[in-house]
Design brief:
about 0% helix, mainly beta, 5-stranded antiparallel sheet, Flagella cluster protein
Length: about 80
């Protein structure tokens, strides 16, 4: 199982073959993990990935455990 590499930021294009785009706005992206990638925070497979460059975001109840990963450019929210 390949783990998302965020050591030098996060480039979604490196993982597009296994991530399905669910929605996209100017500074946010919501993706589904179709290839079983591992979470860069805990190492377990994740279900969905939310990537944002915005300073603030509001989330409802994700309904499952989640991990947060911060790069210089973005915040990644991974639900399990």
């Amino acid at each position: 199982m390949e783990q998302l590499d965020v050591s030098d930021g996060f480039d979604v294009h490196e993982y597009r073959h296994g991530l399905k785009l669910l929605s996209e706005e100017r500074q946010t992206m919501h993706l589904e993990n179709r290839d079983g990638f591992a979470c860069p925070a805990c190492g377990n497979p994740f279900e969905q990935l939310f990537v944002t460059e915005k300073r603030t975001n509001t989330f409802g109840d994700p309904g499952s455990s989640f991990c947060l990963v911060r790069t210089d450019e973005a915040l990644l929210l991974l639900t399990h």
